[in-house]
Amino acid sequence: MINKRFFKTKDEVEVTFELDAEQVGNSVSIVADFLDWKPTQMKKVVRSKSYKFKTRLPKDSQFEFRYLIDEEKWINDPNADQYRPNGFGEDNSLISTHQ
């Protein structure tokens, strides 16, 4: 799941990335162009049985990302706005912050 929260008075969008913990491995990192492609560990939320990562991104932009499961398996977000070929024979998830 991807949740976007737009602010009327700011040029940024709060974005929450969430994956169901029961459908993935023991650790999940988000790897994205807005993080300089460095794996960033997602927080495991026991109450909701999910992994979450929250950030603020500039409005009216697009960003590419993927999830890295257990430091070995790449997956895309089924709720991404689009997918874009990544040059490695697979696609990256794409999120848009256009309102």
From TrEMBL:
Coiled coil: none annotated. InterPro entries: Ig-like_fold (IPR013783), Ig_E-set (IPR014756). It comes from the Bacteria. Gene3D superfamilies: Immunoglobulins (2.60.40.10). It comes from Vibrio aquaticus. Residues 77-99 are annotated as: Disordered. This is 1,4-alpha-glucan branching protein.
